[in-house]
Every structure is written in structure tokens, then in C-alpha cells.
Amino acid sequence: MKDGVPMLTLPISQRLWTIPSGDERSKEFATIWQSEMNAMGYVNDKLQGVGEHDDTVMAFWLLERAVRMVNTLLQQGPTEQYVSMDEVGLQPVKIGNW
After folding, report:
1. How many CB atoms lie within 10 A of CB 36?
2. How far apart are CA 69 and CA 61, in angstroms?
3. Residue 20 domain-assigned (yes or no)
4. Which burial class, exposed, middle or buried, applies to 37 when counting CB atoms under 10 A from its CB (0-12, 13-18, 19+)?
5. pTM of the model
């Protein structure tokens, strides 16, 4: 459940994602996404889309992976820090007539 499309089960069941359906375009997308999710199944012990399309499910999976990667990077904190010229012993140089 940690990899691939099955990993979508956890964020969906925990209601971490909301699929908007307030307008006609959003309702159409939600319907497509739900039908594609319902068309995922196991064939020869491998999960795959058994319907006509699985593009929306795959896009959702890629989005979930990206969110997880960004969260991991943000938790690590900055990898760089500001160092002033004074801290490294450099003197400012005047350039031009300013």
C-alpha cells in the first residue's frame, strides 16, 4: 500500500483530498476520476486499469507522489545558509560613483 496506485487508498480514506464537484466541469471531472478508480483491478497479480482509460488515476497518483516528495523536502529544512561578507573576512568593494 506504500507504492503505486494502492497508495492512494490512505489519503483518500483519511479525507486528505477533496474532489471538487460544485460546477458542471468539476462534476464531470469527478465522475471521470471515480469511474477510472472503479476500473482499477488486479490482472495476473498486477494492479492495472481494466477500463478504457486510467489517465486521471495516473495523474492523481503522480500528484500524490509529488506532494509526498515536497513534504519530505520541506521537513528537511534549508540546506543553505546566509553568510555575510564580514563573517568570511571580506571587505566591501565600491564600484562606480555611487
Report:
1. 20
2. 12
3. yes
4. middle
5. 0.61
Q: Is the torsion defined by CA of 9, 41, 49, 36 positive or negative?
A: negative
Residue with cell 515536497: 70
Structural domain includes residue 12: yes
- Measured in degrees and rounded to the nearest 5, phi and psi for residue 78 equal -65, 145
User: Can you read off the three cell numbers belonging to residue 73?
Assistant: 523536502
For 3-71, the three-class secondary structure string (H helix, E strand, C coil) is CCHHHHHHHHHCCCCCCCCCCHHHHHHHHHHHHHHHCEEEECCEEEECCCCCHHHHHHHHHHHHHHHHH
Q: Mean pLDDT by 10-residue block, N- to C-terminus, for the chain (98 residues)?
A: 74 84 90 87 79 85 90 88 89 81
Residue 30 C-alpha cell reads as 469527478
Range of the domain at 22: 5-76
For residue 85, is it within any domain? no
